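During the second year of the project, the team shifted from modelling isolated chains to modelling whole assemblies. The rationale, set out in the original proposal, was that interfaces cannot be judged from single-chain predictions alone. As a representative example for this report, we include one of the complexes processed in the last quarter. Its constituent sequences, exactly as entered into the pipeline, are reproduced here:
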Amino acid sequence: MTTKLLSIENVTFHYFQRHGLRVKKRTVLNNLQLDVYQGEVLGVIGRNGCGKSTLLKLLAGIYQPDKGRIVANNVRVSLQTLNAGFDNALSGRDNALISAMLLGHCKAHALSQLEEINDMAELRDQFDEPVKTYSAGMRARLGFSIAIKMQTDVLLIDEVLGVGDAAFRSKAEQIIDEKIRSGLTVILVSHAVHQIRRLCTRAILIENGKIIDQGGVDGVLSNYEKTIKNTIG
Amino acid sequence: MTPKHFWQLVFTTTQLNLKSEASKSYLMYAWWFLEPLLFVAVFYVVFGIFMAQNKPGFVVFLLCGQVPFLWFARTISNGCSSIAHGIGLMSQIRIPKLYFPLVTIFQDTVKSLCVFALLLVFVAIYDSNITAAWFALPVIMLVQFTFVLSLTLLCAMLVPFIPDIKYLVATSIQLAMFGSGIFYDFRTVIREEHVSLYLANPLANLINQYRSVLIEGVLPDWQALATIMVISSLVVVLLIIVLKRLDSVYPRVLLE
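Output from the structure prediction step:
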């Protein structure tokens, strides 16, 4: 954990909600400061609407911050949600090709990876059938396999591993473990406390657009559980 | 994303979208030809038979207006929401927003090229009148492509900010149909003093050029083509520059 891959410097981000002609401003992230180091698995937790997903979108370069800046030192960052927009009428193979190219790979490289994607997703002959014939689990497996095979330097994962059967879930966790050991940096947003505990090396807790706690996973998680209890109680 | 990668992505998506679209209907690729044929059939019945314009050559005259018009109309109506519909993708990955309109424009252009091929075969058989002027056709088509590209880009870029424009686009396409001489010959309908105004409409002008080449067998008006080409190209370049600047604005505008 020495090389700094990404840093978020005093980032503020607003949403503008439009109702007809009226516009309302809401601050989602407020003067956020965070560094991400090579090879770490950073867990991001917090309640719904606290700004977790916005943070990932900023890191992926989809949004630009209103204030502050994000410094990425020549790294490829990609956001992976498992419900990536597959075209239902096309085969798993065609969808994998387009997804891989969208994730930033040239056509030749994407084509060369298709068989390995199929191996990992365990779709076999179904790989050439339209995605509309797939079960939810099969779609999730395809999405996960594309994301993992078409590796980037920093993988941003938003609420994953909830789908797929138990066997694939444990395989997916194992694959993530391997990737982490091979030096892939992961930022994981999840509500599943056990997943954060198992996979992450560090965690941050976001509340009302600010980081209110960061550091060791156990400490941050117990703090998170406390904030939830306080709200309920 | 390098330019090479960007174009690879645009062409692969276009190809796969066409495949996807075709697989969604029973007659698949046949619809590329059937749909324009149905349009022409309706026009023929209304204007050729009911309104008794059944002069010889009316079908060819109609086709020369209808085929280019459908290319124009379909591209703009499909393209105007292209950036807005790209929200699912652009909220997941960082992608140049030019990708979305380009894919729809190419999709409709591929389909239209097939219809043009059919038109040429039809004219060749019906009129058996292939002249050297036909070599000018690709030039007219290139000018039309650039013109359609400029309008589609403009609409696609505006719709995310002002969704209401979609309704105006549909009405404007209707207007363009009536104002571009698809089912009438402007020389017999438009008054002498209004002709230059009529031909200032690029679509009417282009349709007139197609007819010069395909029906009269004469070369098109190069000066008019050059004017449309230069203005459209300038607009395209300008719009691409603006689109690059607005690239990170679109996901926010569309999600908020």
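Residues 82 and 140 of chain A are 6 Å apart (CA to CA). Residues 85-152 of chain A form one domain.
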